[in-house]
Amino acid sequence: MATTRDEMFEVIKSNLHKIVEGSRDQEILPDRSMKDYGADSLEMIEVVSRSMKELRIRVPRTELSGATNLGELLDLFERAAQASTAA
Amino acid sequence: MTRLMRDDESRAVITGMGVVTTMGDGVDQFASALAEGRSGLSNWKRVRDPRLACKVVGDLGDFELGEHLATRGAAYPQALVQLAKKLLRATPSSGQLTAVAALQAYVDAGIDARGIDPERFGHVSAAHNVCMPYIAENVRTYDEEPEFIEPLFGMLALDTDVVAVTSELLHLKGPSYLVGGACASGNMAVISALDQLRTGRADAALVTGAPISLEPVALHGWTMIEALTYRSFNDDPTRASRPFDARREGFAPAEGAGALVIETLASAKRRGATIRAEILGGAASSDACRLTKPHQEGQERAMRAALRDARVDVERVDYVNAHATSTPLGDAVEVEAIKSVFGTRAYQIPVNGTKSMLGHCLTAAGVIELIATVVQMERGWLHPTINQEEPDPALDLDFVANTARDARIDIAISNSFGFGGINSCVVVGRAP
Fold it and tell me: Å from B152 to nearest chain A CA?
């Protein structure tokens, strides 16, 4: 069964909590960016890469840089999941 | 005494020490195991590849950073514990172990309370090829899907990350770099740091010995060139490392990290630091031969040059911490080299092998064995060379067989020799 958008968000949130210390006690909202939770550039790469690996999806690096908040990142994840299911 | 010709700015003393080994986490635990002659060797814990011929190892695969910081971390400044959690979370094992040993040495040196100018405080790490399991694992992942390799592989796979992560943790802003010399790396790092201090480029240096995390392909490679023990003691791992004994058959690979804080005598006096020992000198030589086989002449040159550098006559040396890996040829050649350098004095001074208990910590060995040497000097005893069951008639020095004994050590040498004809020797003396 395909992973839902909510399930994908849970994976991202869980990795954000594990990797970005400042995010641990905070509610993670889709209209915020990882930077808002104190993530540095390497931590952002880590959250995205670990989440993609866990969800077994691939988003081209060139597209990832276009996401300005977590909701947009989720959009990219969703599209990648649909593409891989269609394939 | 000519020794006094160096001024306080160019004399180097040890003011902090830390170890993480299979014989103990921390210098006190390590010292107890040394005194008791307790082996840290076992069968594999982490690597479970039945194809590996060598089943004897000093395996730190069960080291848990979180557990260490939660328990022994109570003795560290809490800001450093928090920073360590953040910096070391995704760091491969070798960098974690090195950073923990460094934390211990830093706290032991009392630097947090009585500081050293960070810009005058460097870091020299004995480290190369330290992340082999991490690299191998990511190569396998890459084969499956390139995007799924570890996100920070491009940074963390580099040996230099070992230096960088610990320098960030301890805010060391002086000269920081790696030194590579195969199994002599630890001594080479000590010698390099000593040079930094003597030339005035730094007031202090952290010297770390980073472990080579053990990976089956490297171990199989060493088995193929007959370097490791694998024939007789796989079922009896604590008896496998037996330097000088007639049944020695190869070294037992081991993981272990060590760290020293060294500083000029002037710096230690300014800080009112507790001085553990003085590094009197050190030197290295090459056999100009890429092979793994030891050369007596090169080893002699390293020992003689180190004693010259230390301005110490052989008659004043009262202990040798031998390289003594438990290989048939290596131990025999080293004994001959010691006899040639020390003459009749060789028969009057003890020569022991820390590797009989610890196994061979490879790049970290020199640093850890220098710590073992200082521990014995400070505490007034000699640790045994264990597993001395069948004497080799050709090896007839006092190896402190099987049982520790009291001894006063004022000046000692510690040898480390590496593949590729890299020879080194460090001379250490009682705290001035």
Answer: 7
